[in-house]
Predict the structure.
Amino acid sequence: MVGLVLVSHSAKIAEGLKDLTSEIAPKHNGIIEAGGMEDGSIGTDAIRISEAIRLANDGDGVVVLADLGSGLMSSETAIELLDDAGINVVLADAPLVEGTIAAAVSAMCGSDIEAVVKAAEDCRGVSKIQG
Amino acid sequence: MATRVYECLKAIGDKIIANKDFLTDLDREIGDADHGVNMARGFQAVIEKVPEDEADIGAALKKTGMTLLSTVGGASGPLYGTAYMEVAKIFAGKDTVNAEDFKLALEAAIAGIQKRGKAEKGEKTMLDALMPAHDAFSEQLASGADLVTALDAACVAANEGVEFTKTIAATKGRASYLGERSIGHQDPGATSATMTLEVIRDFLKG
Ligand SMILES: Nc1ncnc2c1ncn2[C@@H]1O[C@H](COP(=O)(O)OP(=O)(O)O)[C@@H](O)[C@H]1O
Ligand SMILES: [Mg+2]
């Protein structure tokens, strides 16, 4: 199953999002959060993200979803650190909450990594309040 | 006994830690008031984690980069972390610094920061200190100057770069949210980059 890594500056956001996702996609056990810094402060940590990617990977690849600016930079760094690890890992260009839910559902249904990324990225233009 | 490279990293860390409030205040004007806090936390960890007896400059710088990646927290974490790791490749297996390698190191740092942050010159970032510093450094080398003389010129250019950041609007990073209102303030990352170069220069002067 395609794994997911949830990156946020805030550990609480990443944990909360993981809880929410587990409600919606209970059968997915490759969702790993990488929020905040090791000492609990706000920020992102490329090393922790790369460890989360290793954990999330069961061979089918990993999609990373990140929140703001430097979360993306740390995620890209983490992916580069794993250059030699042979893991198929993609950083999705998607809103964190909606993208994660869509990706988790897609992954749980057995989609391949391209389809999971697309499910997340399809959330970009979705209007929340249909008028 | 502590090696030269450790002493130099410690000197950079001491300088950044001593200027924690100053760097944070600069970031308060145009960002989110954490650059000094971020960098001080990162270099505190560098001072603790890089082995004092590491003689291989490349290994010490790689450890520095990895430590910054995991402790700085803000954008400057992946930016400086990547820069140090790219510079580490130039010094892999070496225990001395010469002018030619230093020039390659400046190039590697700039390339690493650009790979990560996709900024160009003139966007009010640390690149506005490092790119002119690199240009001045290479010009000096081309005319036969030695490492320390070239570094002196690089530091002058980096300081001019910091002054230049006061005159432009940020288009990358958090400061870009302010747009034109960021004019008039110097960039915190350009300031910390210049401090780093100055410490290295003073250190190599001995
Ligand atoms: N895309 C980028 N490219 C190069 N440097 C950048 C970029 N974004 C931000 N910076 C540098 O990072 C500094 C801010 O660092 P810091 O305050 O530690 O991180 P954050 O912006 O995440 O709070 C800026 O002053 C600028 O020099
Ligand atoms: Mg900041």
Notes: The CA atoms of residues 102 and 147 of chain B lie 8 Å apart. DSSP finds nine helices and no strands in chain B.
